[in-house]
Amino acid sequence: MRAVAQRPLDRLALPRAGGGHADLDPALAAELIRACYDSDIDVGFSEELVFDHGTMVPLHFLRPENDLPVVPIFINTLAAPQPPPRRALALGRAIRPILRASPKRIGVIATGGMSHDPGERNHGVILEDFDRRFLAEMARGDLARLQSYTVADMLTAGAGAIELLSWVALAAVLERFTGEALAYEPVKAWATGIGVMVLHETRNA
User: Fold this and answer.
1) Are strands 177-187 and 4-6 parallel, antiparallel or unpaired?
2) What confidence tens digit (pLDDT) does each residue in 106-150 have?
3) Which pLDDT tens digit goes with each residue over 81-90?
4) Which one of 21, 53, 123, 200 is the catalytic residue?
5) Which of 62, 66, 94, 195 has its CA 20 to 30 A from that of 56?
């Protein structure tokens, strides 16, 4: 299993009532894959994949019209060994020049749960301190601190907390930024910490 997978085809099936498809941008996806190879990051791509809740829920609320092309990038957070945060930073840095040089207006979105341990020994346990500390580090744009995390550090907040690797990759795409936590709630009914942030790029910092 590769640590990172991308989707370079034209359309992707949507797992929702009525079906449908998401339009993709295979040319941009191919550029990102080449950029990763040039940075010694081995990525794979899939030709059979259906979006799950981690992708569909944000896309639904951000663009319910589903009329913009997307390039999904998935980081292995399910099966050991998962990549460490420093590799997620390397991924973000590898694709940053392509996104910066593109004439297209590109939004970069990171999804993934905070502290949660779905179906595991500590299911239902939410580490609010961990979540709030991570949000504060993201808000400061503290790449050094994000890089210092290990997989074991993240797993202390539950098996699902490793999904924060996508947040770390996004931080590296921007490189210089400040963040603002729009909301945080330890949602007991969902057995997970839920956080939402917006990152403001500061190119001249």
Assistant:
1) unpaired
2) 999 999 889 999 888 889 899 999 999 999 999 999 999 999 999
3) 999 999 999 9
4) 53
5) 94
Domain span at residue 22?
4-201
Helix axes 85-101, 26-38, angle to 10 degrees: 130
Query: How many CB atoms lie under 10 A from the CB of residue 133?
Result: 13
- In the block, which residue shows the tokens 């390397």? 90
Among residues 21, 60, 116, 123, the one annotated as catalytic is 116
Q: Which residue is listed with tokens 């990051």?
A: 41
Secondary structure (DSSP) of 2-49: -SEEE--SSEEE--STT--EEEB-HHHHHHHHHHHHHTT--EEE-SS-
Cis peptide leading into 58, omega within 30 of 0?
no
CATH number at residue 139: 3.40.830.10
| φ/ψ of residue 160, rounded to 5 | -80, -15
Q: How many domains does the chain have?
A: 1
> 48-57, 123-132, 153-162, 188-197: which range is least confident on average?
48-57
CA 63 – CA 68 distance, rounded (Å): 8
- The question of whether 116 is a catalytic residue gets the answer yes
Q: Is 189 strand, coil or helix?
A: helix
28: closest CA among 95, 119, 81, 123?
Answer: 95
Q: Does the annotation count 21 as an active-site position?
A: no
